[in-house]
Amino acid sequence: MARQQGAVVFSLLAAVLLCGCLPAPAAAGVHLSTLPKALAVTASPKPGQVLHAGVDTVTVTWSLNTTEPAGADAAYKNVKVNLCYAPVSQKDRGWRKSEDDLSKDKACQFKLTQQAYAAGARRSFDYAVAKDIPSGTYYVRAYALDASGTQVAYGQTGPEAAFVVAGITGIHASIKVAAGVFSAFSVVALAFFFVIENRKKNK
């Protein structure tokens, strides 16, 4: 009898330890489709305008939609603004794909700014397009965050107002000139040594 009780106790302890070792189920992310589109967001570039990374600036403006009822923004503590790949720049690129689950979304990879939310105010931010922004077509999205940093509302310029960023290829004109000079020098040096070798053989 004692052995049976001991076996039962051992089994219970093993089950408890096993449960403690199992990973907790992944928490579901916030879904964009469930968020109210409560922010009015605009960006300075015109649709289709080409901006150059490391050169141009985007002015982003946001405020609460006038259609929102009073107190709708009571939980808003911060606003985070992101640069998002437009659908045309997501095609055949899984690493840029939009997801309704924001914890899995890969379209809005570039954070432009995060600022405290000002109720009743219209805020703006001037973003100098970073040199590491890849070439592509983009639009702007802003999220309203609560005290825990969770998205509770959003607004965006939308793909229909997308603009183009011409990224830096990494090959500058000075590098091309230097490569050309070295190539020419190599040809001259090769010809020089060829002539010297021939003279030695003739002697």
UniProtKB/TrEMBL annotation:
GO terms for biological process: nitrate assimilation; response to nitrate. Belongs to the NAR2 family. The keyword Membrane applies. GO terms for cellular component: plasma membrane. InterPro entries: Transptr_NO3_Nar2 (IPR016605). Pfam families: NAR2. Keywords: Cell membrane, Membrane, Nitrate assimilation, Signal, Transmembrane, Transmembrane helix. This is High-affinity nitrate transporter. It comes from the Eukaryota. The chain crosses the membrane at residues 177-196.
